[in-house]
Design a protein that fits this description.
Layout lengths: L1 H33 L9 H22 L3 H11 L14
Helix pairs in contact: 1-2
Length: 93
C-alpha cells in the first residue's frame, strides 16, 4: 500500500512539474517577444526562469526514469504516442 501512495504522489508531482515547466516556458517566450533584440535574456528575471525551467526538466526526467507504468500511460494520453518524451522541450538559441 505505501508503494501505491508513492506512485500516486509521483504521478501528481509529474503533472505539476509539466504544468509549471509549460508556464515558465511561456513566460520566457513572452519576455523574448517584449525584447526581441535579446535584451530579455540578460535580465535577472529571465535567468531565474531559465534556471527554474532547467530544474523542472531535470526533475521531470528523473521521474520518467523511474519507469512507472502509469506514467507511460499518462504520457500516451498527453502526447498521443507511446515512447515519445514529454512534449515540453524549450529550444536553446
Amino acid at each position: 500500500m505505501p508503494e501505491r501512495m508513492l506512485v500516486d504522489q509521483l504521478l501528481q508531482r509529474f503533472c505539476a512539474v509539466e504544468d509549471r515547466a509549460e508556464a515558465v516556458s511561456h513566460m520566457m517566450d513572452e519576455l523574448d517577444e517584449v525584447c526581441p533584440d535579446g535584451r530579455a535574456r540578460n535580465t535577472a528575471v529571465y535567468r531565474a526562469m531559465e534556471q527554474e525551467y532547467t530544474c523542472l526538466c531535470a526533475e521531470r526526467e528523473f521521474i520518467e526514469s523511474l519507469g512507472i507504468s502509469e506514467l507511460e500511460a499518462m504520457s500516451i494520453l498527453r502526447n498521443g504516442e507511446a515512447g515519445e518524451p514529454s512534449q515540453i522541450v524549450r529550444q536553446k538559441e
